[in-house]
Every structure is written in structure tokens, then in C-alpha cells.
Amino acid sequence: DSGVTQTPKHLITATGQRVTLRCSPRSGDLSVYWYQQSLDQGLQFLIQYYNGEERAKGNILERFSAQQFPDLHSELNLSSLELGDSALYFCASSVVSAGTDTQYFGPGTRLTVL
Amino acid sequence: KNEVEQSPQNLTAQEGEFITINCSYSVGISALHWLQQHPGGGIVSLFMLSSGKKKHGRLIATINIQEKHSSLHITASHPRDSAVYICAVGVNRDDKIIFGKGTRLHILP
Questions:
Q1: What is the predicted pLDDT for the residue at B72?
Q2: Do A96 and A31 form a contact (C-beta atoms < 8 A)?
Q3: What are the pLDDT tens digits along chain B (109 aa)?
Q4: CB A24 within 8 A of CB A73
Q5: Rounded Cα distance, A14 and A25, in Å
Q6: Among the listed residues A56, A114, A48, A47, the one whose alpha carbon sits nearest the alpha carbon of residue A85
Q7: Does the beta carbon of B31 lie under 8 angstroms from any beta carbon of chain A?
Q8: Would the CB atoms of B102 and A99 count as touching at under 8 Å?
Q9: Which of A43, A98, A107 faces B90 most closely, judged by CB atoms?
């Protein structure tokens, strides 16, 4: 158990819908990262938050947004869903940054868009 | 050309063999991470390296910053080592993280 929790574990929804994925980091970790893993693209970095502020942005679509709350949990919002958004979404946390610290991964949320 | 390249893509070996997985990158990095992903999907961080060499049990990771290359070694491999091993780098210029495509390792008993 990494100490990082993600909810829900599975999510099935239809095209055009909007979903919210939730992540709680390990106690004491200030950074949260979101990743997408699809069969054809592999793991891709979406976005990083550090202590409530956006720190780095990767290949995150405009239809996707994220935030980190004062209690340090984070949410990833996916809207106007398309079939191609079906993937595993991982959250990870670290003390400060991936440049200096080990990341701890959550179990992932499997999103299926029908 | 991908900024992070792993080789081999797939590797099948007999139990007990010495395993080497390679990772080359073309960007300036703050750190390199080796991750393990089991068939169930969970991801575990094995090592974070910014220089030199680290060892944990039967796993050894090395990095050569000048050559922009890292290797992950598994000694006395075991079927439970069967997993996908992924190299990831933290990019200096923008704090992004770039992943290799992974190496699928299968250890036969």
C-alpha cells in the first residue's frame, strides 16, 4: 500500500459526459501528479500540483482540468468525454518534486467511455 | 525520435538469469525513475537516480549523466520479477515527466 488513494476504482460513462477523479496523497506529501495510461500511448504526464498551485503541465487536453485543495487532495475533471479518453488514470504524490523525490502511485482509476 | 527510449521492448529469460534493461534519454534531467508495473496494473517506484548507482535487494540501477543512459539490472531473476519496467525522467527545463514505452519482462520457471 503506497498510502495514495484514488476513487473511484472503475468508472463507466458515455461520450459527452463529465467525470471527476479524486486523489488523496500520502500524508506529508505536497505534490500530486496526474498520469494517463492508454494502450496505444503508454504512460503520459498530465499535470502536477504543488501545495495547491499548478507546477508543471504536460499533455493535458483543454477538456481536462485539475485542482489541488487546501487539504492537499486533488481532483481531475474530464469533460466532453470521447471514446479515446478510455484509459487508466493514475495519481502519484511526492514530498516536493519528481526531480528530488520518489513518487508514490495510487492504484489508478479505470475509465471506460462507451 | 522519442526523448526517452527503452530497450529491449520485450524480454523473456529463464529463472536465475541476470537481466539488464536500458534507458536512454535526450533531454536535460533532474532525476531518472525506474518503475515497475505488474499485470494487475499497480505501479511501484523502484529507484530514483540523479547520479551513480543504487542497489535494493536483487535490483541495481545505474545512471551515466554524461552519456544520458541508465540501466536496471536484476540479479538471480525470479518469475515474480515478471512485470513491465518503465523508465521516466524529470525534465530540467519545465519539470515535465517523460516516460519510456516500457520493457515487458517475462521470467520462466
A1: 98
A2: yes
A3: 689 999 999 999 999 999 999 999 999 999 999 999 998 889 999 999 999 999 999 999 999 999 999 999 999 999 999 999 999 999 988 889 999 999 999 999 9
A4: yes
A5: 28
A6: A114
A7: yes
A8: no
A9: A98
Burial (CB count within 10 angstroms: exposed 0-12, middle 13-18, buried 19+), residue B13? middle
- With CB atoms and an 8 Å threshold, state whether A98 touches B30: yes
**Interface contacts (A, B; CB < 8 Å):** 64
pLDDT, residue B40, reads 80
Which among A97, A98, A108 has CB closest to B41? A108
Per-residue pLDDT at A1: 85
Closest CA to B70 of B90, B50, B42: B50
